[in-house]
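If your schedule permits, I should be very grateful for your opinion on a structural question. The matter concerns a single protein, recorded as an amino acid sequence and a row of backbone structure tokens. Could you please explain, in whatever detail you think fit, how the structure tokens follow from the sequence? I set the record out below, with my sincere thanks for your time.

——
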Amino acid sequence: MKGKVSVVVPLFNKQNYIEQTLRSVMNQTYKNLECLIVDDGSTDNSVAIARKFIEDNQLPWSLYLQSNSGQTKARNHGIRESKGEYIAFLDSDDLWAPNKLELQVKAIEENHKSVLVLSAYAIFKEDQTVPRIVRHRKAKKMNLQWIDMRGFGGGLESLGLVRRDVLDKIGLFDEHLSTSSGLDLSLRLENIGDITLLSEIGLYYRISIGQWHGKTDALKQDLRTLSEKYSLGDFRRTSKFQDAYFFWISTRLEGPMASLKAFLHALLVLDLHRLQMLKSLVLRNFYSRIYGWVERKKTISFLISMDIRR
């Protein structure tokens, strides 16, 4: 039998989603797995729902409780308790495609230099009919544009399959980081082996209220920390792209007219970083939506099967 996979799911106040998430793990075609759910001090009904799901389905899974310490510490808690040859991560409001683990284990066992496997992923909202699809082709480019915000992230926290012995060697998630601990781990893994990128959709990433990606101040701090830590390219250039990203995100919230005025001003003063960032944001969203139209029927069918669409 192929190597055992330990699935680590950090949980905090996701009572509306956790059952669907756990069902997507249970439905995996790859069966040599354990699932470790680490509750980070939830104040809603999340723990009771997770416990009932395990009991009702008679699953040999583990549920751990810790006082509220953050998702990074919850993931590390799960890793320390795990027994698998490979570690896979999944956030408690996201969903895996049924063959996600099967394809990733096959890929990592075919390439002994591979230390991390990621897949394509679909970004969806429950009230939208067309998802966005993200596919990365080159790991180095993915990490570089992840840190300067010109590209989509790799999604390691819900997509990654990592060799356990590699984590033992380089260390776990950096608990000083909150929103970007997955990027940090991806950068460290890139330095010691291959990152394998699969074109098949492995994850359905749910946009919901209260997610970490919406915590702008924490994200800014993490990105500054990582830019200095890794000195990727020119630090000043990287930080300017990051500033430009947050500028456009903030401007968009003010409405179309504010965005148009900001664009015209950037043209007038030749603010190349803001113009390049705007181009990157437009192109990445354009292509992800084109891919989304192609995958629309498949995505809707999957969401219906998970009782998310009717």
Q: What stands out?
A: Residues 5-214+294-305 form a domain with the Spore Coat Polysaccharide Biosynthesis Protein SpsA; Chain A fold (CATH 3.90.550.10).
